Amino acid sequence: MSDLQRLERHACFGGWQDVYRHHSASLGCAMNFGVYLPPQARQRPCSVLYWLSGLGCTEQNFITKAGAQRRASELGLILVAPDTSPRGAAVADDPAYDLGQGAGFYVNATQAPWSAHYRMYDYVVEELPALIEAAFAVRPGLRGVAGHSMGGHGALVVALRNPGRYRSVSAFAPIVAPSRVPWGEKAFSAYLGSDRTTWAAYDAVALVQQATGERLPLLVDQGEADEFLGRELHPEWLQQACALVGHPLTLRRHAEYDHGYYFVASFIDDHLDWHARALAG
Ligand SMILES: N[C@@H](CCC(=O)N[C@@H](CSC=O)C(=O)NCC(=O)O)C(=O)O
Fold first, then answer.
1. ipTM above 0.85, yes or no
2. Whole-number Å distance between alpha carbons of 275 and 43
3. Atom of ligand 1 at shortest distance to CA of 153?
């Protein structure tokens, strides 16, 4: 039985921006997530877009900064935005912003002390959708996933690893190959250990190259003035991998945009349209 508790409710573009808390069995702690319910959800089941946020974020960053609710209300899309890691005094942490709480990297950790709670992959792929589909009027199986930076990595990975589970995927400034950049090397060493062969299961570039079945089209937006572009993101690696295996990719580069939510807010409508098209019907 769900212990779903509503923490916030705000009228927003004819619908509701809510925040909920529940006990997560995958993570072994309380978790918050935001849900935007468009006005159409009062009348009929709607499709769901899951949003995965980046380093240092909670469920609040996307719902307060991306400005996604206006278009979602027009399209009749439910938006679900979970926190980015397990939380709490009993949960392992690190003082750095890029490890521990706020930096779950959407993996199932295998290494102590992280393995006790850090199972964000299972949470995002299995537990949260099951909860959403039981608690809200959603169209079964009609799911999309999107994200930003660490969350862009998460969105690409969960979609590429689960053919048929998502109808659409998109990302803003994603970490496309965490196995090969400092943020990912640090997190994966801690969460997954030193055997790099285990890292490929969470690396979008590796997954694109390995895929044999479904080739879900990818939409990626990248700012050219992104302070993390050359060190952590490398969209060209995804472009090369997609070209090599014929994986459909729309990569859009935007002069002058940096890494932050001003960039996300500038192009979020395009992403919502992309998902709504795939989720229609
Ligand atoms: N200097 C920041 C670094 C954290 C940061 O930039 N986080 C980004 C995502 S980066 C990759 O996942 C973010 O989304 N921040 C939240 C926001 O509202 O902008 C720090 O020290 O925290």
1. yes
2. 21
3. 12
